Amino acid sequence: MMTTLSTSLNALPAEHRQRLMRIAREVSFPAGTRLFEEGGHADRFWIVRTGSVALDTHVPGRRSPVIETLGHGELVGWSWLFRPYVWQFGAEAQTPVRAYEFDATSVRLMCDDDPALGMAVSQWVGRVLAHRLQAARTRLLDLYAPYGSGSGVRR
Amino acid sequence: MTAVPMTAVPAAHGTSVPVPYRVVARWEETPDTATLRIEPVGEPLPPFAPGQFAMVWAFGRGEIPLSVSAIPTTGGLAHTVRSVGAVSEGLYAAEVGQVIGLRGPYGTGWELEKAVGQDLVVVAGGIGLAPLRPLIRDAVADPGTYGRLNVLVGARTPADLMAKIETRQWRTAYTGVTVDRPDDRWKGQIGVVTKLLDRARFDPHNATAFVCGPEPMIRATARALVHGGLAPSSVRVSLERNMRCATGHCGHCQLGPVLLCRDGPVVGWDRAEPLLYTREL
């Protein structure tokens, strides 16, 4: 497996990772469970162990379109780290999901108490965000259209 | 397009004269893409290797380069064509029994044989799966020769996925399919195809990747693979340019010092990357 080490929890130094894992709770969700709703208070986050979580957004009058799916080793939720701690999207278990759940307030307090841990966690979440921004930009190119978003010779 | 009656003629190997092939089967892959199974009317062209291409004639319209999308052991060939212009529209609409013209084989192949003993990572964008299909079939048919086979497919929508049933049937270490824009029935992955690399099973230090799709997708995928530890020379990409003569003479397909009809379409990322990032090319 080519793990994206820079965006997985393993990117954290071992001592910081162990401190985080000490407050992790093992949770599981049946398929279809709503983990959080757009606009809600971001009070926790998850690392997916197995299964798949879909991020979606609310569009009045139609089924919520799914923006992205997250799987093994991926972070679900980053809004807990930045004020005003409000979810930007909704999330739903697409399949049965097992995950590690973290209480956001506890993690933020740990980060406040230990600037080194705070820096490591911020950098980790920052890398996740950068990775997702890059993926979103790539998708904006409409890669799979004939000749991508550019023009080409059509014969 | 009107079918042109043809009689058996000797194949004109090494010339620019198209050899007649008859469409013996046709099926739709996506709403604008079809695969044509063809057999020679007379003497066949020399054997094609996976990744190579033919110049395919729609008589009365012109010719376009098309990679082979199947090389059946029983003979004949298959080409997959997306209707995007006058010639490709004519080929897309070709009916069973109709005769088309072929020149070839041209260009470099995937060279799967150089990846013996290695894990294989096949990454396809949209109908980029078509040129990769013969390679995947070879790897599936000979599992003891290679390491773990991974097939990653990305498409714009579920309707744009080709060979859906066959993709599910390939025996691989990992098969991942993702789309950018799901419909209401889609239950699979959503996101860019590069995300699937995290789920694929391979040793980056002993793997070869084969990538085909639109050029922005190739660039994003090759960068992710190299970032993940693959040597640039172990990432083989299929590039598309405006191929005309296919014999390295006209220069239409020139990319810097490379004539893609002759030196490509399959090249190593170590060679392709500096050319693709040169603005003047």
Automatic annotation (TrEMBL), chain A:
SUPFAM superfamilies per record: cAMP-binding domain-like
InterPro entries registered for this protein in UniProt: cNMP-bd_dom, cNMP-bd_dom_sf, RmlC-like_jellyroll
Domain Cyclic nucleotide-binding residue range list: 8-77
Region forming the signal peptide: none
Xref: SMART domains: cNMP
PROSITE patterns, per database record: CNMP_BINDING_3
Transmembrane residue ranges: none
Listed name of the protein: Cyclic nucleotide-binding domain-containing protein
UniProtKB/TrEMBL annotation, chain B:
PROSITE patterns: FAD_FR
One record GO biological process: pyrimidine nucleotide biosynthetic process
Classification via Gene3D superfamilies: Nucleotide-binding domain of ferredoxin-NADP reductase (FNR) module, Translation factors
CDD domains in UniProt: sulfite_reductase_like
Record keyword Iron-sulfur present: yes
Cofactor note: Binds 1 [2Fe-2S] cluster per subunit.
Domain FAD-binding FR-type per the UniProt entry, residue ranges: 16-112
InterPro entries: Cyt_c3_hydrogenase_gsu (IPR012165), Dihydroorotate_DH_Fe-S-bd (IPR019480), FAD-bd_FR_type (IPR017927), FNR_nucleotide-bd (IPR039261), OxRdtase_FAD/NAD-bd (IPR001433), PyrK_electron_transfer (IPR050353), Riboflavin_synthase-like_b-brl (IPR017938)
Binding site for [2Fe-2S] cluster: 245, 250, 253, 261
Cofactor annotation: [2Fe-2S] cluster
Key word RNA-binding present: no
GO-annotated molecular function: 2 iron, 2 sulfur cluster binding; flavin adenine dinucleotide binding; metal ion binding; oxidoreductase activity
Sorted UniProt keywords: 2Fe-2S, Iron, Iron-sulfur, Metal-binding
Official protein name in the record: Oxidoreductase
Organism whose genome encodes this protein: Streptomyces finlayi
